[in-house]
Design a protein that fits this description.
heterodimer, A: alpha+beta, Ribosomal Protein S5, domain 2, four-stranded antiparallel β-sheet, 5 helices, 26% helix, elongated, B: alpha+beta, OB fold (Dihydrolipoamide Acetyltransferase, E2P), Ribosomal Protein S8, Chain: A, domain 1, 3 domains, five-stranded mixed beta barrel, flat
């Protein structure tokens, strides 16, 4: 369906330039991170990458631990792709896209051990804190993965525990105790179109991708999570190159946090 | 004798009374209520003889008979194609208006125009219910192959085209790009990457500065200053 657009984009990429004039591995500007945008949430953030705009809220609830990890708290990530953000999104139960987005963000935070789940335990086997992270794209102009994971991280950084007396949580009262973020896993999605690699795709580029790899890495460049998407396979050399780009670009994004 | 309330080329807001009396005629963007003529939308009121019309400053495209527009194919049916006109109303192009080629009974229509293709077409009729009929028979009306389509403010299209096409011809000459401007605010453009970007920047500049005088000279300077990246042919 997008054959002509694809060949046009590839001819641009061979000239070392993108449809909007960016270089191949250049993020859109400006990248803005705003924390504490939602009063009713324990922590919140709004991230803009170019025209892409994502809001993330963090709620803290007290619940029961899973039987196999009685002394660990947990995180629950949900994404809702609102129709206001993209005409192609529809209301209703989350689709493949929303589930994938939530899982990629979840995996980045979970596998990097950014949150020490043991510290979320209140009473082993009985009470734990559940960290609920909700992702709401306000405008989808491409690259929701990177924007959402950056926003989720910023919201976690912003989050403060509500008052808890051992029985009930008082959401109207926030304490000064913050969620401790031990690491900052940043996700960078590297796209393969033809034989070129780009980051931060816009809507048109997202229509014609061959493959994408979301690379989450930490401050020291350690990998913590990956997710492959798109219809085309990747060779080992491709993945090596994409990892290098992903880790390099994560350093750039981390400065905005 | 009717009384004209607004000054020529002043800004009018929706509902504002522009003139009172039956001598004056309401033009596009205005309507008559009782004796008075009122503005339909935000724009510049222009008095042209006995008619008052409104040049809109913003807003989406509204299909008008005779406009040449760029459309995207959104549906292929048994008898023709449904096109997205970049407005609230979609257009229908029937088989007989689509091509001068003979289309056999039961032929696969996607071989002519497939989903997602862009075509340049002309509006032949707009009903009162805003059902739009378009044709592709006419000079310059064709399927747009290669290149890309960008969106501009449809109200700025006359400025992008310029007087007798002067502005768009200047951009074409300076950048060696193929450019087709649709009156619905879609512009098709195809050229060498750097030149194409320059042409788009020039059009964005026209959009931003369309209200300023001496625009043609400014764009000329802009095109010269930013260099023409000529490739050897």
């Amino acid at each position: 369906m997008h054959k002509e657009l694809r060949s046009h984009i590839i001819s641009f990429l061979h000239a070392g330039i993108r449809l909007d004039g960016r270089k191949l591995t250049e993020y859109r500007k400006p990248i803005e991170v705003e924390q504490g945008v939602v009063k009713t949430a324990e922590g919140s953030a709004r991230v803009k990458i170019g025209e892409t705009d994502v809001m993330v809220g963090v709620k803290l609830e007290v619940g029961e631990p899973y039987p196999d990890t009685p002394d660990e708290g947990t995180i629950i990530v949900g994404a809702e792709l609102l129709p206001l953000s993209n005409p192609e999104f529809e209301l209703g139960p989350p689709g493949i896209q929303a589930i994938e987005l939530a899982r990629v963000v979840d995996r980045g935070i979970r596998e990097s051990k950014a949150l020490d789940f043991r510290k979320l335990c209140i009473e082993p086997g009985k009470k734990i804190w559940m960290v609920i992270i909700d992702i709401c794209p306000i405008n989808d102009a491409g690259n929701l993965f990177d924007a959402s994971s950056l926003a989720a991280l910023a919201a976690l950084q912003d989050a403060k525990y509500p008052a808890f007396d051992g029985e009930k949580v008082d959401y109207k009262e926030k304490t000064d105790k913050r969620l401790e973020l031990e690491k900052t896993p940043i996700a960078v999605t590297v796209i393969k179109i033809g034989d070129k690699f780009i980051v931060d795709p816009d809507v048109e580029e997202e229509k014609v991708i061959d493959a994408r790899l979301t690379v989450s890495s930490m401050e020291d460049g350690t990998l913590c999570a990956m997710q492959k998407g798109g219809d085309f396979p990747l060779t080992i050399e491709d993945i090596d190159k994409m990892l290098d780009i992903g880790i390099e670009k994560a350093k750039e994004l981390r400065k905005h946090l | 004798m009717s009384k004209i309330i607004v000054q020529d080329k002043s800004i009018a807001v929706p509902g504002e009374t522009l003139a009172v009396g039956m001598d004056m005629l309401p033009g596009s963007g205005t309507y008559r209520e009782g004796e008075s003529i009122k503005a339909n939308r935000l724009g510049l009121a222009v008095i042209d003889g006995r008619t008052i019309k409104l040049i809109p400053l913003s807003g989406r495209y509204i299909p008008k008979t005779g406009d040449t527009i760029i459309c995207k194919v959104i549906d292929v049916s048994f008898s023709g194609w449904r096109l997205d006109t970049n407005s609230a109303y979609s257009a229908m192009m029937s088989m007989k208006d689509a091509t001068s080629e003979f289309i056999a009974r039961g032929a696969n229509l996607t071989q002519y125009y497939d989903l997602g293709d862009y075509v340049m077409c002309k509006i032949v009729n707009v009903t009162s219910q805003k059902l739009v009929d378009v044709t592709m028979k006419g000079p310059g009306l064709r399927k747009l192959r290669g290149g890309r389509v960008i969106e501009v403010d449809p109200n700025k299209v006359p400025r992008i085209i310029g007087k007798q096409g002067s502005m768009v011809i200047m951009i074409k000459d300076a950048t060696k790009c193929n450019i087709s401007v649709g009156q619905n605010g879609l512009v098709w453009i195809d050229g060498e990457p750097l030149n194409e970007l320059l042409a788009i920047q020039a059009m964005r500049k026209i959009e931003r500065e369309s209200h300023l005088s001496g625009l043609t000279d400014k764009i000329k300077d802009f095109l010269e200053k930013n260099g023409v990246h000529r490739t050897n042919v």
